[in-house]
Amino acid sequence: MADARKKIAVVLTHGIGEQIPMETLRGFVDAAWVANTDAQWRSPSDENPADIWFKPDVTAGSFELRRVTTRWTRSKTGAIAKGPRVDFFEFYWADLAEGTTMDEIWDWLRTLLQRWPSQVPQGLMSAWILLWVAVAVVTILSMLAISPWPGGWWHVGFAAAAAIVGYVTKNLISPYIGDVARYVRADPRNIAIRRAIRERGMLLLNDLHDSGRYERIIMVAHSLGSIIAYDLVTLLWTSRGKALELRENEPAFLKLRAVESAAHSLAAASAHDLKQRRCAYREAQRTFRLALRSGGEDGTERTRKPEEEWLISDLVTLGSPLAHAEFLLARDAADLNEKVSRWLYPTNWPQFQKIESEQRAKIDDRTEPPTALILGPAGGLFSYFLAPPMTWSLHHSAPFAAVRWTNIYDPHRLIFKGDIVSGPVAPVFGEGVRDIDLSQLRGQSAGFSHTLYWSLETADVAGQPKPHIKALQNAIDLLDRPDSEIW
User: Fold this and answer.
1) Hey, which end of the chain has fewer CB within 10 Å, N or C?
2) CB 481 within 8 A of CB 313
């Protein structure tokens, strides 16, 4: 059996603003673990199954941070059996984004304002118009403040209004919009910050993999943090080459072919069977990912060294601006599609590639011809033949062959009802993403909800949690269940 002492790591990547270390993580753990009675092992009466402890851990990357560890999860094998314990980590990056200047923010906003209306996604049109109005108001106030006309108390009023606008911009807008401007835009002034954030994240994820203490890693990210977490999953995948190599005679290879076949089935789905095929694809992702850890799902498969393991099981995004990738990460939809087609942005399902002549010659250079199962679906693979006699590797843009992506969003009305930052991600990054629309679970939000995805203040104190908390717990899935058992 697999090592029962190995644990689950949950890594939370915070969003924009001047975040206080551990402040975000503390509230998140309350929702994901303390309130999640379904995931907790039934401990003896003198113990509280929801207990948590804060422990210094150099893996967290800062002496300001702590690892939050729990008691045992409930095992899937029986009511009295223990499942793995959970360690929660915060990937903290706010300190690396300090010092944004107004020039940098304005440069970025100008690129957004100069778009034609046809290049603005429909869901952001109202915010784009409001941004234009705000710029016009600021420009007019500034001009009136420095102009001698009309003089008197009017001039004092304009000057005061301009000062207030300047204060709000510097102290309230800059710390938030500045984070977005500096991370999503590959400007020479931002390269060092982007690199520092990614290097810190990569160090954390590699340390978790190589420690040998974990059987699974769950990535959860809020707001701008979801773009960072998406980048980290992508970069980590390309850096763990040994984990992506498979031999034809091991069970993991057959599970790779199964997830590739499920992806082709999903790609051919119609409206009436899309839900079923997405579920089948995500279950194939889970089965394949379990095969990439040492011992496989049940511990009977081959032993893998830490550098040969892939442990990230899920990417859970909350209030993600990736829904507006064509606006934030590209010039327009056509530019984004071009970048996706060049494998710059991994999709879910991953891009297919066919076996071409050079690879075909290597595959055929063996005593017995390869079977149809070895060659896989004719429409293309996530993998390529690496070396004789039977070694394959997944390609660099295929992390979502093994990683389930669940995106929770809250549609907005009138900008300030719901979460205008968020939206569905599947239309942009592929139907393998499971989008969870909170308005369908509990109705339209009465106010701005971008910071309320794990808020327990709006949840029931007793009984079942409110829908947004239950959706979060299901997406994180501490018990590591197939999709058909969750949704």
Assistant:
1) N
2) no
